Amino acid sequence: MANVSIRNLGIELGANRVISALDLDVRAGEFVVLLGPSGCGKSTLLHSIAGLNDAAAGSIEIGGRDMTYADPKDRGIALVFQSYALYPTMNVEKNLSFGLRIAGTPKDEIARRVARAADMLQLGPLLQRKPGQLSGGQRQRVAIGRAIVRQADVFLFDEPLSNLDAKLRTELRRELKLLHHQLGATMIYVTHDQVEAMTLADRMAVMQGGVIQQFDTPDAIYRRPENLFVATFLGSPGMNLFRGRLSRRDGRVVFGDGHLALDVSAYPFRQPPPDGLACVLGVRPEDVAVRADGPCRGHVTLVEAMGAHRVLWLDHHGTQVAAIVQDDHPAVAGSTPFALRPDHLSLFDEASTQRL
Fold it and tell me: What is the dihedral of CA 322, 305, 168, 174, to 10 degrees?
């Protein structure tokens, strides 16, 4: 396993600068996820690490060696694409061993590596089948196994589960995490699926417009988003937002939007906010408490049944508020009281969109 260090990276595709002055440090043995919407630059960044895109500026180090302009074959990486890219005329065993045979690896070593990968990915009974005889999940296992047999320093995954149905995605997601524990390898994984990112990552980088907006553990990013983009991109339903101002009253700091007044004096401000600052208050749906003594009221416009819980959509003076309640919560209709849990709030400067 090896670390990956990226400094001041710039990537141009044609006349477009896709990534500018990007820094990223991936520790050896870490599982890092690049998360963001389509077109944010996450796949471009992954392909640049792999050597498929030329760097216009900056440097890429893998295992302490400068690989900025090295050929892909010399980087010690293994890449798994969204498409399986298997050889249709070869059986699973030959697909797994193809790269090793081309590299002149001894036959006994090939057999050992193929057997290990097949055991890890439960491919043993499928070794003599051809890709056309496999399901989508089995084909993706073969594609991952082909990367494993290379014993690479760094494994790169470019949305490998996006072509699979929901059940298969869940199964392979779990297998990938277990595989990471078994191999102890450095893995960098690209996805636009936040569930994949939250469950797989040791740390994740949320990207927008070719810029890493926040790089931290999934829990830290979910609970303490650095800006409004990160706050609203993560979560389903997304974070509830209230636009208002901060005011100082008798030594307290109060958020108000004309319909609610909330004491936020205990909020961990990075610096004391000025009186009258326009800001946005964010609260996750699970931190909206629907209860009889709630100081706020909202009209229930929709109830979404989600199995073990329900999502209540409340109209609070024109602001849509999502609240998660357990399935055994009493049925509600019409106007209902609710409260915001003060210890799980986020505040953002309305002008800069950055966390206060």
Answer: 60
